[in-house]
Amino acid sequence: VTKGDFLGSASGAVVLTALIVFLSSVLV
């Protein structure tokens, strides 16, 4: 695992979490 791969997966997880929080706040 390279530094770029780690940063890419980390940012992907952050985006995914933000998307879930956004969708749940909109639906609720």
Structure notes:
The protein is mainly alpha-helical. It has 1 helix and no strands. The protein has one domain (1-28). The model has no long low-confidence stretch (mean pLDDT 88). InterPro entries: DUF3948. It comes from Bacillus cereus VD142. Keywords: Membrane, Transmembrane, Transmembrane helix.
Indicate the topology.
Blueprint: H1 3-27
Short description, anyone?
The chain has 28 residues and is an all-alpha fold.
Distance between the termini: 38 Å
Mass-distribution shape: rod-shaped
Strand portion: under 5%
Largest sheet: none
Number of domains: 1
- Got a strand count? 0
Q: What class do helices, strands and sheet pairing give?
A: mainly alpha
- What is the N-to-C order of secondary-structure elements (H for helix, E for strand)? H
- Specify the helix fraction band: over 70%
Low-confidence regions:
none
Number of helices: 1
Cα radius of gyration in angstroms: 12 Å
Keywords: Membrane, Transmembrane, Transmembrane helix
Protein name: Fatty acid desaturase
InterPro entries: DUF3948 (IPR025034)
Organism: Bacillus cereus VD142
Question: Main attributes?
Answer:
28 residues, 89% helix, mainly alpha
